[in-house]
Design a protein that fits this description.
CATH superfamily of the largest domain: Zn peptidases
Oligomer: single chain
Number of strands: 18
Number of helices: 10
Number of domains: 2
Strand content: 25-35%
CATH class of the largest domain: Alpha Beta
Helix content: 10-25%
Largest sheet: 12 strands, mixed
Shape: globular
Length: 424
């Protein structure tokens, strides 16, 4: 019979030093931080609201106190601009033949758009592809694209106009056209009313020592869905579990590793914006990184409730795609804590959260969660409040992440990469 001690009593020689400091990750600190992020004063942290700016300022102040320095410049805010475009007019012809406007979708930051075949890259969405997933991926391109969409999607093509609601401000123009069209014989003219909206991730870094040019990322998203339909008189969707719990974790991890002061690899702590409206914060962040230099990504999403296995457990999305999960579990030998493979494979969570952009580029980027995706009672509801969370267990999860990541942080272990041929 093997006796497994609680994480707080763990004394295994291999992780004694990490464990000793992990005890400084305390329930009281976790409680204080998450109560601010999920307070009614934050009004659900909706994108483009004054309150999300307030949340960003709070996270930046916590990073400053914890010890990480800004990733770039003097500010923790990694700012970018999103565009929403309302089409006023459009006309299109191919080889002199008029194209039904319903079969064209143009994403442009320009009030007046005229298609030019010069410097346009042609892409296709083939029959059998996931139309909306593929379109969403291509819409984030920094290059001008003409995307030919197979006619098998004719009944759904018009729904691609949802992409106009939010896309990155860029000089690139993205054109979707239903069917095969000769790029050289295509003419399109369109006018739009353009609205620009500013957003910002909050990002800090603890530079490494011997392996300064190698990066380990700890991340979560700090936006939620704001004010919604009242439930029992409450219209504030606080997002305590989703994902104030993840942001609380990265703040605690920043304190942990700063106090240890022995990270050989550089550690990046990223609080992403706009996850709830399309994952734009993590997409923008990922474009600033060289994927080959990112050794691992720990994306932390909804860890405030017990997992389907109960306390002292969590799951890792895409567990089978790299050996990162095995490394983490090896570092927890002797403890009561267990990391499990994702029990909800049908939901394809590996490619649905903020880890996805870097994972698609081969980075061992995984999301750690405890959320019961088939039965989480407060998910995207006004009832997602701190009082519904198990903060003691959540603190143990944060400790387990700190301890299990230690050999990756130190440079002793390097996870295998995601096989990009396996993309879905």
């Amino acid at each position: 019979m093997t006796f497994k001690m609680p994480l707080t009593l763990l004394t295994g020689l291999a992780i004694t030093s990490a464990t000793a400091f992990a005890q400084q990750i305390k329930v009281a600190d976790v409680t204080q931080t998450i109560n601010v992020l999920a307070s009614d004063e934050m009004k659900g942290r909706a994108v483009y609201s004054p309150e999300i700016d307030k949340a960003a300022d709070f996270i930046a102040s916590e990073f400053k106190k914890a010890g990480p320095q800004p990733l770039a410049g003097n500010s923790y805010l990694q700012s970018f601009v999103m565009v929403s475009a309302t089409q006023q007019s459009i006309s299109a012809r191919s080889a002199g033949k008029e194209i039904d406007p319903k079969n064209i979708v143009v994403l442009t930051s320009k009030p007046e758009f005229n298609y030019s075949p010069d410097d346009v890259q042609v892409e296709t969405i083939k029959a059998g592809d996931n139309l909306f997933s593929k379109a969403f991926e291509l819409a984030g391109s920094s290059k001008s694209l003409l995307i030919q969409v197979d006619e098998s999607f004719s009944d759904r093509f018009s729904r691609l106009v949802f992409l106009k609601r939010n896309f990155f401000k860029t000089d690139a123009d993205i054109v979707f056209v239903l069917g095969n069209t000769d790029p050289q014989k295509l003419t399109i003219k369109a006018t739009h009313s353009i609205k620009e909206n500013k957003l910002a991730n909050v990002v800090g870094i603890l530079p490494g020592k011997k392996l300064k040019g190698e990066y380990v990322i700890f991340s979560g998203h700090y936006d939620h869905i704001g004010i919604g339909k009242p439930e029992n008189g409450d219209s504030i969707y606080n997002g305590a579990n989703d994902d104030a719990s993840g942001i609380t974790a990265i703040i605690e991890l920043a304190r942990h590793y700063k106090a240890q002061n022995n990270n050989e690899r550089s550690l990046i702590f990223a609080a992403f914006t706009a996850e709830e409206v399309g994952g734009f914060g993590s997409q923008y962040f990922s474009k600033q990184m060289s994927p080959e230099k990112v050794i691992a990504m720990f994306n932390i999403e909804m860890i405030g409730t017990d997992s389907k296995w109960g306390k002292n457990s969590a799951y890792i999305t895409g567990y089978e795609k790299t050996d990162m999960g095995d490394i983490l579990q090896k570092n927890l030998e002797g403890s009561a804590f267990t990391f499990h493979p994702d029990p909800y494979p049908d939901q394809q969570l590996f490619y649905r959260s903020d880890n996805a952009t870097l994972a698609r580029l081969g980075v061992p980027a995984h999301t750690i969660s405890t959320s019961k995706m088939d039965s989480e009672p407060n998910y995207h509801k006004a009832s997602d409040e701190v009082k519904t969370l198990d903060l003691v267990n959540m603190t143990e999860i944060i400790k387990s992440i700190a301890i299990s990541a230690q050999t990756i942080v130190s440079g002793k272990d390097t996870p295998t990469r995601v096989d990009t041929r396996d993309l879905k």
